[in-house]
Amino acid sequence: MAAPTAYIVEAVRTAGGRRGGRLAGWHPADMAGEVLNQLVDRTGIDPAAIDDVVMGCVSQGGEQGFQVGRGAVLASRLPESVPAVTIDRQCGSSQQAIQFAAQAVMSGTQDVVIAAGVESMTRVPMGSTGMLFAQAGLGKAKSPRQEQRYPGVQFSQFMGAEMMARKHGFTRADLDAYALESHRRAAAATERGDFAREIVALEIETPDGPAIHDRDEGIRADSTIESIGSVKLLAEGGMISAANASQICDGASGVLVVSEAALKQHGLTPLARIHTLTVSGGDPVIMLEEPLFATERALKRAGLSIDDIDLYEVNEAFALVPLAWAKHVGADPERMNVNGGAIALGHPLGASGTKLMATLVHALHRRDKRYGLQTMCEGGGIANVTIVERL
């Protein structure tokens, strides 16, 4: 008997907002709540039929504290009967939300699950929850036993990025060239209207009055290799700069995952099916490298080769991650991040997983392609890989 299938019937995201930018006025629970509303409105499903909401969020403090997933439900038009949970797998939080939703459906325990994510990096700055404890003298993130296992080692994504660039033989020029291409692809996709189907437009207030936010704010269409190369390096003698790393971003996103029974019961049309899902851990020091090896394992599990995959979304936490990934797995760069990535579009941490899935699923439909693969590096040396098949 064939294993139960999990289907994606809708996938949406807000347009990214720059730090202190056009989405700064949106409370994260309200922003995520509007994504939930749109998933319901676009599919026409009875909101009372939703079995659960799995919300990714990294900085779970301040306005994103007190279980922001449940807060999003209460800020939406969903009934109080819809439960929610907030999860943290660092940058992969909402990609893991997709996988948890799919696992619930494939196990037969639930039929309709929303996987979503939110991060207001303006209102709840990255690392702010840990800094509050450190400033209060309430302990360190690295435990004594971790120190015994990794003596004198600092767990740092920036240090890991520099280590990885050197290990895989990339120069700053390579990273800057990739960053420029991210902006070019994102600008071209925007002008073609490629993001229109996936974007949830939000009402905002500007100095000139009310407006609609429906275009990614971080894209720099006028970028040049000279302007990117002029940005100061984050470490003396290093290769990483703010220009060849992901942008701080405000945003929310979500995917509606259902069973075959729910498709029939609610008259839903699937966009894709979840083909393969996996997660693995690796070196927490170099930290960003695990997507390379996780992808190899996922493809083997799926019975596919990298050549079978039509489009790849590899999160641009740093330019070197997709560059090293493509080099290691033998991927075609022309199929990778075809609409640009987080360097141009922003990386709203806990929202990036479902954000990338929204872009991937809709790109598969626009380009009439079959298989898509999504992966990203995550704090602590973890990586999720999700393979979907367009329907």
Automatic annotation (TrEMBL):
Membrane spanning stretches: none
All residue ranges annotated as the Thiolase N-terminal domain in the record: 7-260
Domain Thiolase C-terminal: 268-390
Keyword Acyltransferase attached: yes
Alphabetized PROSITE patterns for the sequence: THIOLASE_2
Database matches in Gene3D superfamilies: 3.40.47.10
Family indicated by similarity: Belongs to the thiolase-like superfamily. Thiolase family.
UniProt keywords, alphabetically: Acyltransferase, Transferase
Coiled-coil region: none
Protein name: Acetyl-CoA C-acetyltransferase
A Pfam family that the UniProt record links to this protein: Thiolase_C
